[in-house]
Write a structure and sequence with these properties.
CATH topology: Alpha-Beta Plaits
Shape: globular
Structural class: alpha+beta
CATH architecture: 2-Layer Sandwich
Strand content: 35-45%
Number of strands: 11
CATH class: Alpha Beta
Number of helices: 4
Number of domains: 1
Largest sheet: 8 strands, antiparallel, barrel
Helix content: 10-25%
Amino acid sequence: MHALQYEITLPADYDMGVIRDRVARRGQLLDDWDGLGLKAYLVRERGLRGSPVNAYAPFYLWNTVEGMNAFLWGGGFQGVVDDFGRPAARQWTGLAYEEGALGQPQFAVRRRQHLAQDAPLADRVGDAVEEARRLTAQGGALLAAVAVDTSRWELVTFSLWEDVTAGAEGDLFEVLHLSAPGRDRMGRGRRW
């Protein structure tokens, strides 16, 4: 599993209806993308639910590197580049994936944590994997994934929720659409 996200910060007075319309028109284009576990089309709106910014920030979980590369280099990502310029696309190596309740995601939470130099890596990563299990045991949690960026020694925990009041710490996003052609092949548990 590989995680990928680009976050496009938009002007404070940007009409977020433009992004909503874009996702409504184009969101289904990845509903059957080979190698994609899932893509959550995410937005934050300045002044809503504690967000300081307007942002469009899709988050991907890939089952295969080939699928991710086909998206990045084979044309899928070019639509983003054409509309917004080329954003930095962060990548993380998957550590764990867990499923929770069944339902439609309304919100996503992304939590990024720095791995301190003095923390034993196995312990910190083990704690993060356990956090994914804990999150998905909560009511309203649909899934949780944990991944690491070893160039920054940063953990990211990504979770989808039915309700904004459900409990996970981090940046809160609204889910506009979920493409999940390979979600059933994500494989639960840790990745080593």
